[in-house]
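Let's sit down with a protein and look at its sequence and fold side by side. Once you have written the record down, we can walk along the chain together.
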Amino acid sequence: MSKQKKPRKDNLADQSVYEDYKNAIPEEEIWTYRVEGLQAPHVNKSYKNARTKKIIVVIVLVVAISLSIFMSVRVVHNDTYKYEELGDGTFEFVKFSNPGGILELNVSYADDDTKKPISVIHEYAFNCDEQIQKISIGPRVKQIDGKSFYSCYALREIRVDPENEWYCDLDGVLYTKDLTQVVCYPIDHDAYLREKYGYAEQYWPTENWKKDGLDKYNDKYTEKYEREINTYVLPDTVKTVGMLAFNYSELFRVYLPEGLETLETMCFFRNWHLEKVFSYAGEKPAEQTGAVPTKDVKDSLPDSLKTIGSDCFNSAIEMDYMYIPANVTEIGHHAFWGAARKEDGGLIGLYEIYAALDEDAFKAQVKTGDQWTGEYDGKLFPKTVPVVYGKARGETNAQQSD
């Protein structure tokens, strides 16, 4: 069965494009079912009690200004940042409520005057903030919850103080210090890269460029742009892709190293443009513009992989091939949910999944969650995405029939 390639959508954050996304989970439970406490993203929605909060802030500011400038600053500070003392002289950064216009934030101290250090960043600390673009992590921060940056659509870069012993960043992408886990690839990191490499605007290389007669559309430009802006190579030291690490990213291709063992829950959640996942062996290419591995590159997941988390590749409808290596022992619920779709009479996305193990061995070895393969429209009823067992990497049903 041939795959019908569809042009990319222009806006990843526009979920209205995906209104037919199906899930058997009740609507009020859909987010907490994935990760306890998770909120739905605030795409084109106001924050809860936003109007009331704005009125309160205005009143407080008016009263504070009438008393003194000092008190007004203090009130705004306390309303914007929430901390909790941990008992060891350090503080937990619990919640940031952007009053509007704060684009950069340094998370180092709970009090700039007394220099009370922050050591923990709480889960959902920045959840659904749509304005913050740059976050700097201080030297004493030793624990960052993977859910801290979920649905921060404007976030371009995360920087870590070089003296921090637990975390670091690679050109604005957050890692543990030993580079064994990627913690957060900022959703809008491509905006940072466009500025870095001199691109004036976001570029979506679809057929519309030709139809509109835009002179900058050409194959070489497209290849260069996608390699520099929409391709990412994880370091060869990485063992774990953290929870929500690449949520809503605008990546087209990702290179995962052999040695990687765990893809945590929702780590590539709703990467609607993700076309290819490659595995590679050997050292990561030297840091240079658009460098990608060229040796020992294989299509799909690395052989070393053991765990594929829940909702891991949820909605990856641009991806056309997925191979489950023989070492995998666990696949979470809805891991590939929404990654297959019937569109204009044809099928796109992952409407078949291939596995190295034969069916008996797979079922004996691999613990799978509910509806892990996903579904797509099948005339009157949804059709479960089939698993094709006992295949070599790259071998498909079409090749076998040939």
User: Anything to note?
Assistant: Confidence is low (pLDDT under 50) at residues 1-24, 68-77. The first strand starts at residue 81 and ends at 85. The chain has three domains: 9-76, 80-172, 230-401.
